[in-house]
């Protein structure tokens, strides 16, 4: 039972990460499979997946093409500029387009431009179903600040991320822990011993 529960939790987290990083087309497949299977352990997984499918439909109201969203982490580096340009054309009217444009900038190593876009996303007013994008945008800013040694600012951005958290099991604990870690570094000195990895890229989570 424990192993089965862990399996369904893993599949649920992966589908949620797909929604934020790879777009609705990829996430929809994962959430639909969970709803169809209707697992009873953990008892929150099926209902959560059903709500996520509803939110995917709401996400798509901005008319951002699914293929463009999924292209961020699947396009070859030498072709990424065209994806970035297409997303930035839509970024004025679409929070998700601005978020995915920031992801392109991050992937290209332009952290200054990425940070500006992530800050826009985090401050963007709009419906609650877009909170996951605001939350991850805040973590991205936090990681950029931490990479530059600005640990107190990084901690504060993680505190902002917590405010955008919405019922993703224990993710708030992870965000709070990261905020505390950066706060400790700001007070005690020292530095990170590894590269920032939280929500870094799909390949971090997909090692099958």
How would a textbook summarize the main sheet? Answer: none
Q: Could you list the spans in which at least 5 consecutive residues all have pLDDT below 50?
A: 197-208
> How many individual β-strands?
0
Q: Looking at the structure, what is the overall shape?
A: globular
- What proportion strand? under 5%
The helix fraction, in percent, is 55-70%
Quaternary structure state of the chains depicted: single chain
**Alpha carbon gyration radius:** 17 Å
Distance between the termini: 22 Å
Structural class: mainly alpha
Our count of helices gives 11
What's the pLDDT, averaged over the residues? 88
| Helix and strand sequence | HHHHHHHHHHH
Can you put this structure into words, describing what you see?
This protein is mostly helical and 208 residues long. It contains 11 helices and no strands. The chain has helices at 2-21, 24-37, 45-59, 66-70, 80-90, 95-107, 111-123, 131-147, 151-163, 171-188, 202-205. It starts with a helix and ends with a helix.
Identify the notable features of this structure and list them briefly:
69% helix, 208 residues, mainly alpha
Can you describe this structure in just a few lines?
Helices cover 69% and strands 0% of the residues.
Give me the secondary-structure topology.
Layout: H1 2-21, H2 24-37, H3 45-59, H4 66-70, H5 80-90, H6 95-107, H7 111-123, H8 131-147, H9 151-163, H10 171-188, H11 202-205
Helix pairs in contact: 1-2, 1-3, 2-3, 5-6, 6-7, 7-8, 8-9, 9-10
